[in-house]
Structure formats: structure tokens, C-alpha cells
Design brief:
Blueprint: H1 2-5, H2 9-18, H3 21-24, E1 27-31, E2 35-37, E3 42-48, E4 61-65, E5 68-70, E6 74-77, E7 83-89, E8 96-105, E9 108-120, E10 127-134, E11 139-145, E12 155-163, E13 170-178, E14 185-189, E15 198-207, E16 210-213, E17 217-219, E18 225-226, E19 231-234, E20 249-254, E21 264-272, E22 280-285, E23 289-294, E24 302-311, E25 325-328, E26 336-348, E27 351-362, E28 372-377, E29 387-392, E30 396-402, E31 407-414, E32 417-418, E33 422-425, E34 428-429, E35 438-443, E36 446-450, E37 460-467, E38 478-482, E39 489-492, E40 502-509, E41 513-514, E42 518-522, E43 536-540, E44 545-548, E45 561-570, E46 575-581, E47 586-589, E48 597-606, E49 610-612, E50 616-619, H4 624-652, H5 676-691, E51 701-702, H6 725-733
Parallel strand pairs: 2-9, 10-18, 34-41, 50-51
Antiparallel strand pairs: 1-3, 3-7, 4-5, 4-8, 6-7, 8-9, 10-11, 11-14, 12-13, 12-15, 15-16, 15-17, 19-20, 20-23, 21-22, 21-24, 24-25, 26-27, 27-30, 28-29, 28-31, 31-32, 31-33, 35-36, 36-39, 37-38, 37-40, 40-42, 43-44, 44-47, 45-46, 45-48, 48-49, 48-50
The structure holds 2-acetamido-2-deoxy-beta-D-glucopyranose (9 copies).
Length: 736
């Protein structure tokens, strides 16, 4: 049973075919009304013919709506022996549904008969009925809004009658116009109409549940005429004016032929084909003009134009807009300011080579249409014609001039004419120089160049920049004219590349002179130098080491050093560091451990980079205490030797009397305190050897071993003269 409910309608139909032929006519469904309003009840009965002997007398009739079993059927025997089941479906909620009468036969459910039920709504009143007279098809075309779906097949009929002005009394019939299926418009052909006679029109909607009527229109077909637009075109060339005005377009249009007899007015609309343009409407215009000049437009701009017409002053409807016409307005003479700059080179005493550079700065929107530039020179003799030096589309031109010529004239031209002439005066180079030129890198592709405001204040500045120094020649430099003399810097954003040296030249411009050009070199992004200054060991002691280095000479455009830093680590990997200013070139490390190994590194830093030197390894001298022990030992041995000599002399030559006594030194010299300077002397006497100019410079690793530092000849140290060791020997001999 459960499986059965899932059967599709086709499945059910198949069963109907499989039934024994004798069963086919056995049952018959009758429905109270096959079409009802949605949600209304439906009553149906199913009768089984008594002649159907193959069915048992007590067969159970079952009802199904679509695939769902419907309980509530009441079954009874009719007097004629037939069986009948009656069911009432309380709400029919589907626009269409199949009701089936079934029987349990040989263990399965068999469909005996089916009936289609329909539900829907009566038609809604059609709204917005409107009509227009189409002279192309020669028919009155009416359309309306049919309203929401009634779910039932609905027919729309346009009904009308001829009448007087108020459409109250019909004066002649017009055949109905049946709208095609699912269409909500209908056309009444001209043969049923009288163009100038009033008629009442309405639309009627009808379906199985009812009929509805729209409100009635009262019109005369000619009053709702909708014309076709006229044909719009351009008039070339302008018949009257030569040359054509750049802000005007020459147009003509012709009314639609079938409407020639009608009085009409037209309107033209146009808009420039630019981003956010709006339509401008010109109205009223006649329906036919041989030529029309539309002015007040932007020069060299594409315009879109359309035209439409209406029967007028009598009633009618506006025609559609004509197809789009695109036209371009003429060119206007360039309205530009030309910024100029020049470079000159004396070729020989009588001739200079000039390179004139310029830049058009548009003074109005849409004024950039320039086809070329003319540079000319007006000889001093006014009666001669100006000489054209260049006729070019580029922004630069090179020419030779007699030395005395200090002025040329530059104009920009296009088909509309030439711009106002720009006088270029080659000013003398005698203004005050610009000071304090500096640069700041903003990002890898821009540089700020700044300067001190000169006194007197210039009228402007020319900034030229390019890969430097002179890498691509002067010809490939970017330049800019700044018209504000009170600025003290400007941002350069074009033609700046990281890691490439940029040469910047700034020239100040005065009323009748230019200042001398000032150059500066800079990087927008700088690479660190390939190596840092190398550390060299100059002197070393047991607790200190003196280091020196040759400062790196900065190259063009390189950022100056901001500081140095020295890092040193001992054998226990303890790190120390100190920061030195950029003018330092040596440093003494203090507080080192005697006889220890140190790694030292120099870091040089600028605003743009830091770089480390290679590591220098050094070993400090052994401590002063151990040296003193050795010295004391040596002196002890000497003393013993002298004493032995003395004893042997005394013993072998008893006649001699203390020959040594008279040379006994001052007791102050024999005190132990006087030994301390002696140790200092030890230290110092090693230095001469290190200072020795012939000694090779100590570079990477310097291992200064104690043995190597054995005392050198005394003479080399002048200061050690105060401490003459041999003179001490007698003092030591002083018996205590
Ligand atoms: C019953 O069947 C007979 C013979 O098949 C037929 O003539 C008669 O019309 C049927 N009656 C009904 C109510 O279907
Ligand atoms: C009927 O026409 C009016 C005015 O033209 C419009 O506002 C309204 O939306 C239209 N109704 C329908 C159902 O289209
Ligand atoms: C008149 O009918 C024709 C044919 O359907 C159509 O092409 C034309 O646009 C209609 N004219 C107007 C003014 O609606
Ligand atoms: C100007 O040119 C004319 C014609 O070439 C010549 O006659 C005249 O002498 C010239 N004047 C000067 C001042 O050069
Ligand atoms: C400049 O060159 C253009 C195009 O080559 C030419 O049409 C124009 O006549 C020239 N102008 C002058 C003044 O030589
Ligand atoms: C000028 O500079 C551009 C890049 O700015 C370069 O591509 C070009 O080769 C240079 N031209 C000359 C002649 O140096
Ligand atoms: C010129 O530059 C100065 C300083 O940047 C500024 O205050 C002034 O408004 C500028 N003048 C003009 C006309 O732009
Ligand atoms: C840099 O340091 C040295 C030694 O420490 C000092 O003599 C010098 O005055 C310093 N220079 C500056 C500019 O601070
Ligand atoms: C240089 O060495 C110091 C100490 O080893 C380190 O802190 C610093 O990051 C190094 N700098 C560079 C640029 O390698």
C-alpha cells in the first residue's frame, strides 16, 4: 500500500490498461462541479455496475486525489444492485488534480475511473487599458494589464462601439477583437474604424467562474496617434559658414512620410559621449527642416543626437526617439599654455645650438587636440617674414641660431587654428645661485628635492632630472617648470628608479635672468657599499687594544655615514658594543682580559644601510703580574751572581776594602714602590716594535704571543731612560 501511494499518474494509467477488459466500463465517476473556486469543497460519487460479475459483491471502493488516499467515502448498495461510494473533499487546494476511484482487486489497488478537477478564481478586472493609433499597420492597438493569474483558462475580448463625444450612446457596432492566448493586447483594423469618430472601448475577461469588465475608454483614434520619428542626419559641409564653427553641428531632418499632412512639433536631444553626461533637449522644433545649426557644444567631442515628434497642437502621443546619430564637433584652436625650457651650446663664436623643450598645459577641458608645434624666429628687420625653425609633433626641437638672437616664438596648432604665440626669451645666466639643495627619498619611485628660498625670490624653478651622471645625455632628462617662486621643494615621481643614481638639476628663474644651475645626486633606494672599512690593530696591551680604520669615501649620491658601531665578543661568547660618531676613525677597547681571544667587528651605518666589516681576531698580552714574576726572577739571579762574585773577591783578596760601598744609591730608589714604573716601562718598551713602520699591517688575525714580545733594545724607547736597570743593581746589593 505504501508503495502504491508513490506511484505516478502514468503508473496508474498503465494499471488501467492492464485491467481485464470486462472491468473497464464497470465504474463511473460523477463530480458535483468539475471547476470550483480554490479552497471550495467538491463532492464526487463512483458507481460500480452490477453487471460486472467478476467483481465480488462486497468490494471496497477507495478514493485517491493525485497519489494520496482520501478517507471518508460512504459506500452503499443501490436498489438496482449497483454499488456507489460518495466522497466530499472539503477544500480543493490545487488548481488541477486527478481524482481516482479504485478497488482492491486480487490483492492490489486497481483504478476504475478518473476525473480531472480544476480550481481557480473568477477573472480580475483588467486595468490600465490604453490604445494608440499605429499608422504603419493602420490599426488601433490597445493593451491592458490582465491582473493576477486566475489559474483557469481566461479569454480577453476587446469590445467597442462607435459613438458621439461622450461615448454614452452606441451609434454603431465594431466587431469584437479577441486577444490571442496569453496576450494582453489586440489591434482593431482600420476598416472597422472611423479616424475622427469617437468610440467607447473596454476589455472583457471571461473564465469558467465568471466575467469581468475593465473601465471604458472614450477616444477618437486620431487623437491617440503615435507617429514614427523623423529621419535625422548631418549636413556636410556647412552651406553657410566656412570654416565650420567648432562648437556647432549642422543637422537636417525629415518627417515620417505618412504624417506629412499632420501638424507636429519635434524635439531634439543631445549629449556629449563623456562619462557622466546628461541629455540636453531642444524644443519645440518644426517637423521638417532643410538645415539646422545646433550650437553651444564642446569642440572636438563626440555627440549623440536623437529626435522625436508629436501631433500638435491637436492631441497625440510622442513618437519614439529616432535611432542614435553620432557626430563629432570641429576642432578649436589649441587653448594651451606652453611651458618652455632650453639648453644651449655655443657652436662657434657666431652660432649657438639651441635645444628648445616645451610642455603643453591645457587651459580648458577638451583643449588638448594639438597636431603639431611651430618654432619660428622673427628677424630683427620687421619687413622680413618669420623663419620657421621647426614644424614638429614632438615636445622638443634643436636648431642653430645666430648668437645675437635671443628670442623665438612657439605656437601649437591643429585644424582649428593656432594657439596664442609663446615668446621664448633665452635669458642670461646671472641670477643668484640656489643654496641648500638636498633630497629625501620618499619611496623607490619618488624623490623629494628641496632648497633654501633664494633672496630675491625667483619667479619659478626648472627642475631637470635623469639617470646620472650624464648616463643618457641631456636629451633624455625629464624636466618640469614650477611656476610658484615661493616653494622650497618639489616631489619628483616620474622616471625615478630604485638603485639608480639620479642627477637632479635645479635652476631658478627670474624676470630677466636665470640663476646658475645646481646639481645634486641621489638614490631613491640605495644599495649598501660592497664592503665596510677594514679594522686594523694598532697597539695592544694586556687589557686594552687600539683599533683604527680608514673611513669609506662616499660616492656620488650615497647617503653619508650616520655612525659606526664596534662589536666585540670574548671567548665565552659575551658580547659588548659601543657606538661611535661618523667622524671617528679609531677606538681603544678597554677592560679586556689579559691573554684572551677577542673577535671584533666594525659596523658602518647610514640612513639607508648598515654594513659589517669582516671579523678581526686578537689576543691580549699576558698580565703584568706574571711579567713581574719573571723580572723578579731574573733580577734575583743577577743579585745572586753578583753576591757570589763579591764573596769570591772578598775571600781571595782580603786586602781590598769594600770597593762597592761608595756607589750605594739614594735609599729612596731602593724602595719597592719605585718598581711600579718599571713595570710600566715593560709595557711601553714593547710599543716601539708595533709602531715600527716596516712591520706589515695586521689584518685578519693577530696573535701576539708573549715570547715575541720580549724586551727590545732600550734605545728605542726614549722615555725609559729614567729607569736604567743596571744602575739598580748596586742598590740591590745594599745589605738590608
Ligand atoms: C452497466 O453495464 C451495462 C452492460 O455493460 C451497460 O449497458 C450499462 O449502461 C451499465 N450501467 C452503468 C450505470 O454503467
Ligand atoms: C497602470 O498605469 C499606472 C500609470 O501609468 C501605473 O502607475 C501602474 O503601475 C500601472 N499598473 C500596472 C498593474 O501596470
Ligand atoms: C506600429 O506597428 C509596427 C508593427 O507592429 C511596429 O513596428 C511599430 O513600431 C508601431 N508603431 C508605433 C508608433 O508603435
Ligand atoms: C630690412 O630689409 C629690407 C629688405 O630686405 C632692407 O631693404 C632693409 O635695409 C633692411 N633693414 C635693416 C635695418 O636691416
Ligand atoms: C607643418 O607640417 C604640417 C604637416 O607636415 C603641414 O601641414 C603644415 O603646413 C606645416 N606648417 C608650416 C608652417 O610649415
Ligand atoms: C631614455 O630613457 C628611457 C627610460 O627613461 C630609456 O628607455 C631610453 O633608452 C633612453 N633614451 C636614450 C636615447 O638614452
Ligand atoms: C606657492 O607655494 C606656497 C608655499 O608652498 C603656497 O603657500 C602658495 O599657496 C603657492 N602659491 C600658489 C599660487 O600656488
Ligand atoms: C666624534 O667623536 C669624537 C671622539 O669620540 C669627538 O672628538 C668628536 O667631537 C665627535 N664629533 C661629533 C661631531 O660629535
Ligand atoms: C652586524 O653585526 C652585528 C653584530 O654581530 C649585528 O647585530 C648586525 O645585525 C650586523 N649587521 C649587518 C648589516 O649584518
Amino acid at each position: 500500500m505504501v508503495g502504491l501511494t508513490a506511484w505516478s499518474l502514468t503508473g496508474a494509467a498503465l494499471i488501467l490498461l492492464l485491467l481485464p477488459p470486462s472491468l473497464e466500463d464497470c465504474a463511473h465517476i460523477r463530480v458535483s462541479t468539475p471547476i470550483v473556486r480554490l479552497g471550495d469543497p467538491v463532492t464526487a460519487s463512483c458507481t460500480i455496475n452490477q453487471t460486472c460479475s467478476s467483481l465480488g459483491p462486497e468490494s471496497q471502493i477507495v478514493w485517491k486525489l493525485e497519489a494520496e488516499l482520501q478517507p471518508g467515502g460512504k459506500q452503499q448498495h443501490l436498489p438496482n444492485g449497483a454499488q456507489e461510494s460518495t466522497i466530499t473533499l472539503p477544500h480543493l487546494n490545487h488548481p488541477r488534480a486527478l481524482l481516482s476511484c479504485c478497488l482492491l482487486w486480487r490483492g492490489s489497488l486497481q483504478i476504475l475511473d478518473q476525473a480531472e478537477l480544476q480550481a481557480g478564481y473568477p477573472p480580475v478586472v483588467p486595468s490600465n487599458l490604453s490604445c494608440l493609433m499605429n499608422l504603419t499597420t493602420n490599426s488601433l492597438f490597445c493593451q491592458w494589464e490582465p491582473g493576477p493569474d486566475s489559474y483557469l483558462s481566461t479569454s480577453f475580448t476587446l469590445k467597442s462601439f462607435k459613438s458621439r463625444e461622450n461615448c454614452q450612446t452606441p451609434m454603431g457596432s465594431i466587431p469584437d477583437c479577441m486577444a490571442e492566448d496569453r496576450q494582453s493586447h489586440c489591434s482593431i483594423p482600420r476598416k472597422h474604424l472611423q479616424l475622427y469618430q469617437y468610440m467607447g472601448i473596454w476589455v472583457q475577461a471571461k473564465n469558467a467562474l465568471g466575467t469581468s469588465k475593465s473601465s471604458q475608454l472614450c477616444l477618437s483614434p486620431i487623437d491617440v496617434v503615435k507617429l514614427e520619428p523623423p529621419t535625422l542626419g548631418a549636413l556636410y559641409p556647412s552651406p553657410r559658414k566656412d570654416p565650420p564653427q567648432p562648437e556647432c553641428l549642422q543637422l537636417h531632418w525629415e518627417t515620417w512620410k505618412p504624417s506629412l499632412y499632420m501638424e507636429q512639433k519635434c524635439e531634439l536631444r543631445h549629449q556629449p559621449q563623456l562619462g557622466e553626461a546628461h541629455w540636453t533637449v531642444v524644443s519645440p522644433l518644426p517637423s521638417t527642416v532643410p538645415g539646422y545649426e545646433l550650437c553651444g557644444l564642446l569642440p572636438s567631442t563626440v555627440y549623440i543626437l536623437q529626435i522625436r515628434c508629436i501631433r500638435w497642437p491637436l492631441p497625440g502621443y510622442w513618437s519614439n526617439w529616432s535611432p542614435i546619430l553620432k557626430l563629432v564637433t570641429g576642432q578649436q584652436a589649441p587653448t594651451v599654455r606652453l611651458d618652455t625650457w632650453w639648453r644651449q651650446r655655443q657652436r662657434d663664436p657666431r652660432t649657438v645650438d639651441m635645444q628648445l623643450l616645451w610642455k603643453p598645459v591645457p587651459l580648458q577641458e577638451n583643449s588638448r587636440q594639438i597636431q603639431g608645434y611651430l618654432v619660428s624666429w622673427q628677424p630683427l628687420n620687421q619687413s622680413r617674414e618669420a623663419r620657421v625653425l621647426c614644424n614638429t609633433t614632438k615636445l622638443t626641437c634643436t636648431f642653430s641660431l645666430p648668437s645675437e638672437v635671443r628670442e623665438v616664438v612657439l605656437v601649437a596648432y591643429n585644424t582649428g587654428g593656432t594657439s596664442p604665440p609663446t615668446r621664448v626669451v633665452f635669458l642670461e645666466n646671472r641670477g643668484p645661485p640656489l643654496t641648500g639643495l638636498h633630497t629625501v627619498a620618499r619611496d623607490p619611485h619618488s624623490l623629494w628635492v628641496g632648497w633654501d628660498l633664494p633672496i630675491p625670490q625667483p619667479q619659478g624653478y626648472v627642475i631637470e632630472w635623469g639617470l646620472g651622471p650624464h648616463l643618457h645625455g641631456d636629451n633624455n632628462k625629464t624636466w618640469r617648470l614650477e611656476h610658484n617662486g615661493s616653494i622650497t621643494g618639489t616631489l619628483l615621481q616620474e622616471n625615478i628608479r630604485p638603485f639608480q643614481l639620479c642627477e637632479i638639476t635645479v635652476t631658478s628663474l627670474y624676470q630677466d635672468a636665470v640663476g646658475p644651475s645646481q646639481n645634486i645626486y641621489a638614490y631613491s633606494l640605495e644599495m649598501a657599499p660592497s664592503h665596510a672599512p677594514e679594522l686594523q690593530l694598532k697597539h695592544i696591551g694586556s687589557t686594552w687594544a687600539q683599533l683604527e680604520w680608514t673611513p669609506h669615501t662616499p660616492e656620488l649620491g650615497e647617503s653619508p655615514l650616520t655612525n659606526y658601531a664596534i662589536f666585540w665578543t670574548n671567548a665565552q661568547d659575551q658580547s659588548f658594543s659601543t657606538i661611535l660618531n661618523a667622524s671617528s676613525h679609531d677606538f681603544v677597547l678597554h677592560g679586556l682580559e689579559p691573554a684572551s681571544l677577542y673577535h671584533v667587528r666594525l659596523m658602518a651605518a647610514s640612513q639607508a644601510w648598515t654594513i659589517n666589516s669582516t671579523s678581526l681576531t686578537l689576543i691580549t698580552l699576558a698580565s703584568e703580574d706574571s711579567l713581574m714574576h719573571i723580572l723578579l726572577g731574573l733580577i734575583g739571579l743577577l743579585f745572586l751572581f753578583i753576591c757570589l762574585c763579591a764573596v769570591s773577591c772578598f775571600c781571595c783578596r782580603p786586602s781590598r776594602k769594600n770597593p762597592l760601598w761608595p756607589s750605594i744609591p739614594d735609599p729612596a730608589h731602593s724602595s719597592l714602590g719605585s718598581w711600579v714604573p718599571v713595570i710600566k716601562a715593560e709595557e711601553i718598551f714593547q710599543l716601539p716594535r708595533l709602531r715600527d713602520p716596516v712591520m706589515p699591517p695586521i689584518t685578519k688575525i693577530t696573535v701576539l704571543e708573549e715570547e715575541e714580545n720580549k724586551p727590545e733594545p732600550w734605545e728605542s724607547n726614549d722615555d725609559s731612560g729614567n729607569y736604567n736597570l743596571p744602575t739598580l743593581a748596586p742598590g740591590l746589593c745594599t745589605p738590608g
